Amino acid sequence: MKRVNIIIDNSKIIYYHIFPLLVNHKNFRDVEINIKYYRSLRKSIFDCDILILLSKPIFNLLNEKKYILEPAGPIIEFLSDANRKVPKIIWMDTADGTSTTHFELLPFVHKYLKKQIFKDRSLYKSQLYGGRIFTEFYHQHFSIDDTSVYPKIATLGDGEEKLGISWNIGLGDMMDAFGKNKKSVIYGRFFNLIIPKYNTIHYNHSKKNIDILLKTTTNLSRETVAFHREKLVKFLQLISQRNKLKSVIQGKRLSNKEFRSIMRHTKIFPSPFGWGEIGVRDYEAFIYGGVLLKPSVEHMETWPNVFINKKTYIPFKWDFSDIEEKINLILSDEKLFENVAEQGQEEYLKSISDTGMKDFTNRFIKQLED
Q1: Residue range 279-289, pLDDT digits in tens
Q2: How confident is the prediction for the chain on average, in pLDDT?
Q3: CA-CA distance, 90 to 127, in Å (whole number)?
Q4: Cβ contacts of residue 321 below 8 Å, gap of 6+?
Q5: Residue 67 or 15, more confident
Q6: What is the pLDDT of residues 192-228, one digit of tens each?
Q7: What is the rounded distance in angstroms from the CA atom of residue 169 to the CA atom of residue 177?
């Protein structure tokens, strides 16, 4: 029996991340992999063959608040001690995007896995303004500056072979994202007693009478991050007014029931960048049978990759120069709308199907063994 210990916490985003592990609990037991979850740092966490550290929980447990992790700091001291007690350590970077890395940890771990990574690994060898590739873009092309300058982080040097992809948030239970109903709250508290299942409810692309839906937070603390959302909202409002579209953009807070009803009747789901490239809205588009309209994510790799250019989503340029053209194309070409909506939904449902879960299990086992 291979023993795998995982450090977690009670946050919803971490429950999101471990959701596919919980769903496949029996599959792992069948191949003699025993996974235990810990919310505190006890001696027994080292009683394993593989120790998996999710970055946000371990940062919180060790009260680490620095961007650059120092050799004498709590994280590296913990990893140095763990290396003497555990054969293999896997670091899972739970940051939202391709960037915001901690490559100073590479000498102390056997694998460094992220939800999504750059296709061009050389991007990790330079500093990005604002710590993200799209914040660098808005700084360079729109002269947006952050009030608080993002600190320089460790760039990628030796140990590049340790860098890999874990899995993205799409393997969480998207239908119950961030505790939208009681079921996900109960699962989050009692996950070790209740084996969760994916909610595979989905909606047809037909009978939709709302052109565009976007309700999002724009008051983010970094100007280079907030700029993208603020600009997108303004563009969508202008485009809707100019083309006399029926749109729900920002406005009053809706009940969960009202919001889901609107999603069922929406054609286009614009999904802006936030702290990272992928968000819950992406999967809401797939579930509710709409077309995902998203800034291009061709710069990144992720798994499962449900973001296929012009097949499962319609990309627009980061400078917004073609967004009106893309919206008009989707609304005027019924065949295109149907194809993208159907294929996006199919790819998503495939990722959480029995076949998708077998793929996940086999992939995770291979990552443990490599």
Answers
A1: 999 999 999 99
A2: 92
A3: 25
A4: none
A5: 15
A6: 666 788 888 889 888 899 999 999 989 888 999 999 9
A7: 10
Q: How far apart are CA 203 and CA 218, in angstroms?
A: 28
**Per DSSP, what are the bridge partners of residue 35?**
4
Distances (CA, A) of 101 to 61, 223, 227: 19, 20, 22
Residue 141: burial class (beta carbons within 10 Å; 0-12, 13-18, 19+) = exposed
Amino acid at 206: S
Going from the C-alpha of 87 to that of each of 34, 112, 136, 156, 164, the distances in angstroms are 16, 15, 39, 24, 19
Sheet of strand 111-114: strand arrangement: 33-38, 2-7, 50-54, 88-93, 111-114, 163-165
> How does strand 291-295 pair with strand 111-114?
unpaired
Closest by Cα among 369, 180, 129, 136 to 284: 180
What's the pLDDT score for residue 183? Answer: 56
